[in-house]
Amino acid sequence: xxxxxxxxxxxxxxxxxxxxxxxxxxxxALLLSLASxxxxxxxxxxxxxxxxxxxxxxxxxxxxxxxGAQVIADRLGFGHGQxxxxxxxxxxxxxxxxxxxxxxxxxxxxxxxxxPLTWVAGPIISYNLLILAIPVVNSLATAVLxxxxxxxxPAFIAAGGVGFxxxxxxxxxxxxxxxxxxxxxxxxxxxxALLGLGGRERGTGDPERGRGDPEHGAGGADVxxxxxxxxxxxxxxxxxxxxxxxxxxxxxxxxxxxxAGTFLAALCFLICLAVFAHRSLTVHAWMRLGFxxxxxxxxxxxxxxxxxxxxxxxxAPAGTIRPHGVWNTDLLDPIVPAAPAWLSSGxxxxxxxxxxxxxxxxxxxxxxxLLAALVILIGLxxxxxxRLPLRxxxxxxxxxxxxxxxxxxxxxxxxxxxxxxxxxxxxxxxLNNILPMRLVLHSTIALFAVLGIGLEWSLxxxxxxxxxxxxxxxxxxxxxxxPGPQTAHEVTVPDFYTExxxxxxxxxxxxxxxxxxxxxxxxxxxxxxxxxxxxxxxxRETGGYFIGSSPNSPVxxxxxxxxxxxxxHASVFEGADMPDPTGPDVLAAIASLRAAGVDYIVLAxxxxxxxxxxxxxxxxxxxxxxxxxxxxxxVRVYRLDQ
Length: 642
What we know:
This protein is of the alpha+beta class.
């Protein structure tokens, strides 16, 4: 076992140089990167040609990543200057007054960070790099939290479980804004730091002191939550508050829904801290938290002013974005395998109120993990040195998961209770747009905190049969929840958009693309948005997939149909014949497009989801508009402004 001094040094004092302290984290990041490349191997092999998703929300985020980079290029003087603003633009929905990006998950914060890569490699590669990076950064952020009460190895393993959890990997199937989860664990870190709780202190955590002692455990981080001293407004508190504020301000420009969910989870966390750690929390500790939080909130709101002002502007949704009672976590979701777990058949067998995108089904953690958490709680929550973090993590996780059940509460798709606690959240403006399913992110973090505590105890007591059994159960838990390799589908981009578009369509022209973007939860439904993005936004698009409003509807999810869309919609989706291209209705529809300022119609005849039979749209437009001005490279371009 070595001498007392040799045992103590790596756990208490650690490396004395910056390089020495960073080295384990760099190795951890490397292993996480290898794991991400394994899970998303298809993307890594062809980052410019495929995406992982069962929907086409990927096109939406590729569009916004490209848009943010192009706006910066315009501001710096090497763009074409036609893209519009960061948060409000008429690059899509050009006939309907544009899009309010503050109400859409524009990923502006990330788009700015990735802009140099987007300029060089394009928005599809930027998107896929983001997908590969998110599990890594999530794990690193969670490890910062877990290191406040765990040794490095169990903290890293448990944090990796969060980064590659069902929630994160599922949401990466089209929702990187929701999968990006650095703010929740770092918020917990800020709260603990402001309260003066957790963390390792020099001279504590003697491994010899705690070996085999159920009261003290096996050494390492002192998790008895000692009282912290010092003025409530000292420099350290101000520094933490400012850093916390910048984090929250950045989160405004990634996902306001994750920010709102983090607020709810933080409330649950604070309630549990007040209940279980009240003996360690002095009045000064609460004053430090209050002062630091006010400082952070003020800075975050200052950062968010452009977003908040834009939210109150044009084309904002005028009602609740999603209906309540649909995106509820079923009580069986944690134990019934669903994608992306390798044990899953690919879809969840649980009945739903309506079909739900598989990217939302991230509540699975597995029976072994829940059983292990129960064993850990029973064995360590009373006398061990882990009792406080264990009780707090367990209670917080249960509270948040109760909210994630939504209202009503469902069991195997059937209503078990007509109303749940989440009904209180749905009654609060702004917060009523949170989908309860997405709150499992926070309960997942709490669960892995419990599992990490159990892992630390078992590794320190491996000579005992109970510890070996717990270690085996934890291994089985990991095997059951590990994600399998994620399948990808091809992104179809006609060559025209990267080769000849600039020569055929003048910059700033208004273009109607067929097939137009549609708010459908299936691949390729919105690829016209990708085409616009890879072209460098040289034209404005009449269509678009977004959240907004129109004079006829308080909430819309795509650009309203024009007269030509309505005619084609009736023929394709209602079983009627294609409209007569020389008939008065069609001629009037074409005239209305010209009058509205549409310059070109661009048809992609081989697009995957173009409705109708082969040749229908070419024949129709050739007769209704005239011969195309350009035909080739996967498109036919019809000029209207003549």
